[in-house]
Amino acid sequence: MAVGVRHCTVRFMELESSSLMKCSLSSSSLYRKQSVHFSNSFSQRYNQCCSLSMNGCQGYSRAPIGTVETRTLPAVSSPALAMECLNSAISDMIKSDSPPYNSGIIRLEVPIEEQIEALEWLHAQNHLLLPRCFFSGRRVASEMCINGASSHSKLVSVAGVGSAVFFTHVRPFSLDDWRAIRRFLSKKCPLIRAYGAIRFDATANIASEWSAFGSFYFMVPQVEFDELEGSSIIAATIAWDNAASWTYQRAIDALQATIWQLSSVLITVQKKNPHSHILASTHVPGKASWDIAVKRALQIISRNDPVLIKVVLARSTRVVTAANIDPLTWLACLKVEGENAYQFCLQPPHSPAFIGNTPEQLFHRDRLSICSEALAGTRARGGSELLDLKIEQDLLSSAKDHNEFAIVRECIRRRLGAVCSSVLIEPKKAIRKFTRVQHLYARLRGRLQAEDDEFKILSSVHPTPAVCGYPTEDARAFISETEMFDRGMYAGPVGWFGGEESEFAVGIRSALVEKGLGALIYAGTGIVEGSDSSLEWEELELKTSQFTKLMKLEAPLLARGQSRIINQNQKGLSCRFIFIR
């Protein structure tokens, strides 16, 4: 298979770092930093995660990677033939001498002359106990030249299993961590990307359900399926670094072990509501506690000299269902109604899957061009065209919603302006409609002074007032004192880094799904002057409805203010009710 293979190779030069200050995605000194406590089980799971492949953040060296390559094999007609080609190419690499580099990353890819849904390919690998990821833009990604081809292909979605190299730590995501990821990326190999997410608040205690994610988690997939417009690509990636005790031979052995487990028989993902029966459902906070929190926020906001103008309070809803929830089935159902949203799935080894259908872009970088957006104010869609228009006009004319929206837009404009030569806002205020909701919306564009400003952008625009509040540190402190659950990656950046492009969404409208344990569904709403706690609670219900519509209560219906708790033992199921205070 060596004949006809196209090579794209680049040797990395060390990043210029003298002018960049060391900084991290953590709170400033104005915010009281919480101590982070980890259980033994957390340490075991974290170390087990780290042992599966190479953690690029451990023993990070500023020395450039020896080689970054993409090798493209001839196109074939089916995934089965593509897998045969990959197997053959990997066998040839095993028989050949090791590359003369102490470190490197090589991507082998086989084009497929058919567009196949990446999510279906990923669903076919459900039997694998490997880390996995999925990312689909709410729009087709920017045109890019695929490995020097004369025609332009558009990337629709990406699915991956296994990690050629991953990046995670319990400390906040830092400039050095960003550099560690960038070592393995190149403009000449645009489809070598690191997919992942960062915690909303890296200084907060990490709950057990989020332990495998650390403070951040990114992965370059070991085996990847790229869905393009009109075609597909299946790829395998090998990464090694002798300094990290992960040799070329270990990397290629690990890849071969993963390849042998893959299925090339695609399974159509169910895109109709599975309607799992809900056995238990519990909100944190409950309605009474929610009313108290909103009242307290409004008291601070309404002071003559308020330290808080806006704060975003969130709710976690744990649901336990009669049957296991398949996160990919949920994601497929969300994808049907998510034309204008990002869909994502991130699942480190031995952990729940973090999935979402978020409408909000954090930023998209294409070389020096950067864009972001402001999204705030929420209304339901109308049942008719006339009613929908009336609701739209009500949202556009609402002083309360305009105030909330203006805070978000102006804050993002200032943050972009700090690292961009200029910032353009167009449109300044419009409506963006989704299947179930509609929001106020503005688009912001700027131009970076240097591509290395990407980390500065990420660390400055997150968290936006749309998911935290304003001023940021005061809002974050209020959230930390008030919320009784760990947001984890909810409302944090989720997306990917690439050599010439990067794109991140805001991880809202999301859930954490674990086999046998049901799901944690997250939603938040902005509290500003004029907010009403009951109306904000209804907004939470509206935002979580994209998940709850996939389930139904087990008869008899639960009484208001109650939560049904199921205790399972060897003799069967027993039920009791508790009141949520």
From TrEMBL:
It is an enzyme of class 5 (isomerase). Its EC number is 5.4.4.2. Transmembrane segments: none annotated. InterPro entries: ADC_synthase, Chorismate_C, IsoChor_synthase, MenF-like. It is found in: Plastid, Chloroplast. One of its GO terms (biological process) is defense response. It catalyses: chorismate = isochorismate. Its cofactor is Mg(2+). Residues 288-543 form the Chorismate-utilising enzyme C-terminal domain. One of its GO terms (cellular component) is chloroplast. Keywords: Chloroplast, Isomerase, Magnesium, Plant defense, Plastid, Transit peptide. Its main location: plastid. GO terms for molecular function: isochorismate synthase activity. Gene3D superfamilies: Anthranilate synthase. PANTHER family: ISOCHORISMATE SYNTHASE 2, CHLOROPLASTIC (PTHR47253:SF4), PTHR47253. Belongs to the isochorismate synthase family. This is isochorismate synthase.
